[in-house]
UniProtKB/TrEMBL annotation, chains A, B:
Enzyme Commission no: 3.4.17.19
Domain of life: Bacteria
PANTHER family recorded: CARBOXYPEPTIDASE 1, METAL-DEPENDENT CARBOXYPEPTIDASE
Residues annotated to bind Zn(2+): 264, 268, 294
Matching Pfam families: Peptidase_M32
Cofactor(s) named in the record: Zn(2+)
InterPro entries: Peptidase_M32_Taq
Name of this chain's protein: Metal-dependent carboxypeptidase
CC cofactor note: Binds 1 zinc ion per subunit.
SUPFAM superfamilies according to UniProt: Metalloproteases ('zincins'), catalytic domain
Catalysed reaction, written as an equation: Release of a C-terminal amino acid with broad specificity, except for -Pro
GO-annotated biological processes: proteolysis
Length: 499, 499
């Protein structure tokens, strides 16, 4: 095969994959937001088909030969071409090891899982979820066997969401968190507890939605190239940079839960909307990893959305939607949304204990795929870990092991991305503050554009050009490190608790 | 190739096509209901890709060889297998004649067209729609050249929506309508004009939606296997029998426009929900033709929905949603929704003049593809035909040539399906009345199940097993004939106008 033929073959498959992913993305979004209940089975079959098709395309012999032909070119390729070949071959070599019928079965099951989980959680019935969970774990264990990771079995899963990530690296990053965070919880407990009494009341869904729309637009999510809908578990689906869909959920007894979910998903959405279209033909119009993705969502949810400056900006807008909060000063709002206290639900957790929720899931998943734990052991193991890490025991499984959607969709190995995202967000924030020292003044004025522009320049615009450590090195000059996150969290606790 | 190998090859492609169609159906639905405006371009590209993929699959040499191998078996095949081969070869031989790059270009353009039309209609700006319309007509003319129809060029288009349909057959069926309908309009004018004054007022969208949900469910549309949404032009998308999506649109100054659109689409939807899943593997879990499809929608919209019996049933339900109509007797409602009078908008037209709207579009399309008319001539030609057939001149293009979505999506040759649908609905109704003489009493009691069951037995359950004339022959014992429709319409006019 000639080099230009090989390139043409690869570009053609990349284009096909882009359309497949757009279709599969829409089907996935629809499944969680619009699909009538009777349609789940058929949709799962179609999603399984498209999952299998992607594998078939990526392992098709002419395509693989073309990639290998190009790999041999080494530095003779343009940088984007080389990166394209590297990224695709990573996927190809992974997928070649997995039997197609098992891969398809996994996709069908993962597509069905969400609706089974949704009902099980609503009914607080772990038993109803157990059969599908067991089968998913079984399939994923099988895949690990096919993949034969050199180190810990769980490495094979971590690697899917951040290439090259291992148990060894995660342990090294999480150990300082696991040690320091309980000290921060204790520090908070020694301070002045913020008043939350004014958050009681009824806050109509329509007003919450208006607030979510307004503030997500303000921070830079473009609603002409996106939507905001409702789902059982908030998520973002980037179908194309011009079609990015975020969701939230509304609790009428809580004014801000939906807003923080929206800001989180809008952070993901802003990343997706600002991916470089010029890299589409190389298949690199994509995030660098899920942990980098979470750095963007957690940045907008917390570093921006839970800052005092943000509440100075947002207070009058909040008052428009919730007249009951019209008299509340920004600092009281800021303190109220930053209360540090162990709680049951990860997505509702404060920034400090949030990371302990992740450590919990990480340690359970690690044990699960080391064969030290079975699906049926999860509720008890969950509750024991909650007691160990947060000093709480969930009153039921809906507020325990059933709270997250991820496992129902076969997403094992994903959770560490959230804590890594926090860690990366703090590193990026320190770098950003060097370039934009008036960061907080700008937030207070509602001038979010330069913040978005900085993130686009240093993160979004690179697409999948670099692996996360290299991307971070370029953006911050540093290696992944939990210190900035711990500094940021301690400052936050001191400000909120007046220490 | 052995026979069983050939069958396996065909079954596999049929399954792939089913998943492709499900994905394309969802994308099409989403485009008209959910897609953010910025996403149109990318979506059109993806839809073009999937259109091209279907053509590629259907013309793939091994698949075509398998079909031809099976065709040679003739009666040695099971009846479903034979029908499958016939139906697929019809498509294959059509698609083989069209160059793939042109077919793809058509699909991209047809996908973009709807949003361009939507804006042009909103702005009453035919000029904004003209370039895309011209290009679509150009492409369709090209396709006709490739297809080389034996008779009138327009035959090539009619045949897409009802196999074997020709200008000759449509002319023969429409001529009696073109002659008799103006006489029925005059007959109505000689009677007692129904009072419509109570239809004035403001009817909140939410109440209209509640009514649409309730009454579509009542007639047999299953909302657990379907949805009701809003779009600029109402439509139905059958993604799977378990996932059928209908849309309507709401005008707050009109209580029943949305309801009739909903009943119409629910008729389509009931057809789609009751297709035979056992025929899916043969690719025959599909409607017999678009005209048979329209027979179902027009049946529920008009034969059921505009009957006196229906308004006796619906009046109390209507009163719940629209308190202002609480005192109005069923007969007054019945007469008000059946006023026969020439008007501008097809989908709002009464049952008599409706067919003249179709004759208009049919004659324009026929001229267009005979080369007697160009895209830029359409507004003037439209207005002249309106004057000729209905004695009216539209005040603007939004209420004239721009009113329908079809051309913007490249649907040329579709319109006759509506009048044929009316004609077939009347034939089916006469047959149904023989089996269910208490048809109207059942409607009045809200007992719609036996009506739905009759239609399922005689129409839905056959899927695409028979071409329309054979299906009708089996259901009614007759050849396509306009007489039942004219009888039905004259009875309606006499009842409404007290003649």
């Amino acid at each position: 095969m000639r080099r230009d033929e090989a390139l043409l073959t690869v570009f053609e498959t990349v284009e096909r994959l882009r359309h497949y992913h757009a279709a599969a993305g829409l089907m996935g979004w629809d499944m969680q937001t619009m699909l009538p209940p009777g349609g789940v089975e058929a949709r799962a079959e179609t999603m399984g088909f498209f999952g299998a098709e992607s594998q078939r395309l990526l392992t098709e012999p002419t395509f693989v030969a073309a990639l290998e032909r190009l790999e041999a070119e080494g530095d003779a390729l343009a940088p984007e071409e080389r990166r394209m070949v590297t990224v695709l071959l990573r996927d190809v070599r992974r997928l070649q090891k997995i039997p197609p019928e098992r891969y398809r079965a996994f996709h069908v099951l993962a597509a069905k899982g969400e609706s089974i989980w949704r009902e099980a959680r609503a009914e607080n019935d772990f038993g109803a979820f157990l059969p599908v969970l067991r089968e998913l774990i079984q399939l994923v264990r099988e895949f690990i066997d096919y993949l034969e990771p050199a180190g810990h079995p769980y490495d094979a899963l971590l690697d899917q969401y951040e290439p090259g990530l291992t148990v060894e690296r995660v342990d090294a990053l999480f150990r300082p968190l696991r040690e320091a965070l309980p000290r921060l919880v204790a520090l908070a407990a020694s301070g002045e507890t913020p008043d939350r009494s004014f958050l009681k009341g009824r806050f109509p869904k329509e007003a919450q939605r208006a607030l979510s729309l307004r503030l997500s637009e303000a921070i830079g999510f473009d609603h002409r190239r996106g939507r905001l809908d409702e789902s059982a578990h908030p998520f973002t689906m980037g179908i194309e940079p011009t079609d990015v869909r975020i969701t939230t959920r509304y609790f009428e007894d809580d004014p801000f839960s939906s807003l923080f979910s929206t800001l989180h998903e809008a952070g993901h959405g802003i990343y997706e909307q600002n991916l470089p279209t010029s890299l589409a033909r190389y298949g690199l119009m994509a995030a660098a990893s899920m942990s980098i993705h979470e750095s963007q969502s957690r940045f907008y949810e917390n570093v921006v959305g839970r800052s005092l400056a943000f509440w100075r900006y947002a207070a009058p807008i909040v008052a428009e939607q919730f007249p009951a909060l019209a008299g509340v000063e920004p600092e009281r709002l800021f303190r109220a949304v930053n209360v540090v206290t162990p709680s049951f639900i990860r997505v509702e957790a404060d920034e400090v204990t949030y990371n302990l929720h992740i450590v919990l899931r990480y340690e359970l998943e690690k044990a699960l795929f080391a064969g030290e734990l079975e699906a049926e052991d999860l509720p008890a193991a969950w509750n024991a870990k909650m007691e160990e890490l947060l000093g709480l025991t969930p009153p039921d499984d809906a507020r325990g092991v059933l709270q997250d959607v991820h496992w129902s969709s076969g997403l094992f190995g994903y959770f560490p991305s959230y804590a890594l995202g926090n860690l990366y967000a703090a590193m990026l924030t320190e770098a950003l503050l060097r370039d934009l020292p008036d960061f907080h003044e700008r937030i207070e004025r509602g001038d979010f554009a330069p913040i978005r522009a900085w993130m686009t320049e240093h993160v979004h615009a690179h697409g999948n050009r670099y692996d996360p450590p290299e991307l971070l090195k370029r953006a911050t000059g540093r290696e992944p490190d939990p210190a900035p996150l711990l500094r940021y969290l301690e400052d936050k606790v001191r400000a909120v608790y007046r220490l």
